[in-house]
Amino acid sequence: MNLPVRVVLVETSHPGNIGAAARAMKTMGLTQLALVKPRHYPSAEASARASGAADLLARARVCATLPEALDGCGLVIGASARQRALPWPLIAPRECGRRVIEAASRGEVALVFGREQSGLTNEELQRCNLLVQIPANPEYSSLNLAMAVQVIAYEIRVAAGGEAGLPVGREAPLARAEELELFFEHLQRALTRVGFLNPQNPRQLMLRLRRLFNRAELDDNEIAIMRGILSALAPGSARSDGSGREQD
Ligand code: SAH
Fold first, then answer.
1. How far away, in angstroms, is 28 Cα from ligand 1 center?
2. Which superfamily, per CATH, for 5-163?
3. In the CATH scheme, what is the code of domain 177-233?
4. Is 229 left (phi over 0), alpha (psi -120 to 50) or beta?
5. What is residue 27's three-state secondary structure?
6. At how many degrees (to 10) do helices 145-159 and 15-27 cross?
7. Could you give the C-alpha distances from 188 to 131, 213, 240, 243, in angstroms and in order?
8. Which helix (H) or strand (E) holds 34?
9. 36, 45, 37: which is closest to 14 by C-alpha?
10. 32 CB near ligand 1 (under 6 Å)
11. How many angstroms from the chain centroid is the CA of residue 137?
């Protein structure tokens, strides 16, 4: 993906969490890690927990202050386990993914995660444009740091549309708009031909069917199947010219 998204961990106490966060990032395709005053770093435990993400960890930037870690960033989103006294715009992880992808097309984005014991200070939170909160058990809403990184990184990946290639469960590319349009025209001719759609009184049938099929996000195979069915049920409806001309 190579998104301009950096994960900033503030004053992490346990090096294992730094390694696990690096791993969480790499599995989701994020690459830039910044560490603000980590308590123990570099550390064998961090490397062990990073596992196959040792490269990402080796390239992590160690910073003395949060402003230094945020240098050059446009959108800054802080991850916070609880709503503090500070009333700040708060979004959910899904929305966070969308906002990050949108902003990443215009500049660098930072995601800031707090200390294991005490999270982010009010001053640090005030450096954020937005806060993201992972909905959790209200009686125990504080996730392990690396797991919070995993959830947010996953949502960014989902919002980015995953890897290039077909999303899980898809056998063919999504139908292009012009093919969908040809399908709708075919559908309209077929419905007219079989007497289901009255051109004199169409009501909102085509609008509703368009909404239905748009929601289904048909792929190329599915469009071919639908058009095959229409041609079988209403022979000659495939084309608007020649034999397929609309009947009165
Ligand atoms: N005890 C701390 C939480 C520390 S967890 C507190 O109450 O603030 C370490 C970090 O993981 C947090 O600072 C936050 O960045 C992230 N985190 C943990 N749980 C989260 C949640 N439910 N939503 C968003 N971020 C969370």
1. 20
2. SPOUT methyltransferase, trefoil knot domain (3.40.1280.10)
3. 1.10.8.590
4. alpha
5. helix
6. 10
7. 48, 13, 10, 15
8. strand 32-36
9. 45
10. no
11. 23
- What's the rounded Cα separation, in Å, for the pair 188 and 182? 10
Query: Predicted confidence band at 168 (pLDDT cuts at 50, 70, 90)?
Result: low
The sign of the CA dihedral 177, 178, 181, 187 is negative
Tell me, what amino acid is at 144?
N
Q: How far is the CA of 162 from the centre of ligand 1 (A)?
A: 25
Cis peptide before 42 (omega within 30 of 0): yes
**Global pTM?**
0.71
Digit-coded pLDDT (tens) for 9-19? 999 999 999 99
Each residue's pLDDT tens digit, 106-120: 999 999 999 999 999
Beta carbon of 93 within 6 Å of any ligand 1 atom: no
Regarding the beta carbon of 144 and ligand 1, being less than 6 Å apart is answered no
| CA 98 to centroid of chain Cα atoms | 6
| Cα–Cα distances in angstroms (integers) from residue 38 to residues 2, 35, 49, 79, 115, in the given order | 25, 6, 16, 17, 10
Domain boundaries, the chain: 5-163, 177-233
Q: Is the CB of 237 under 6 A from ligand 1?
A: no
> What is the distance in A from the centroid of ligand 1 to the CA of 118?
8
CA distance 110 to 30: 11
Distance 116 CA to ligand 1 centre (A): 7
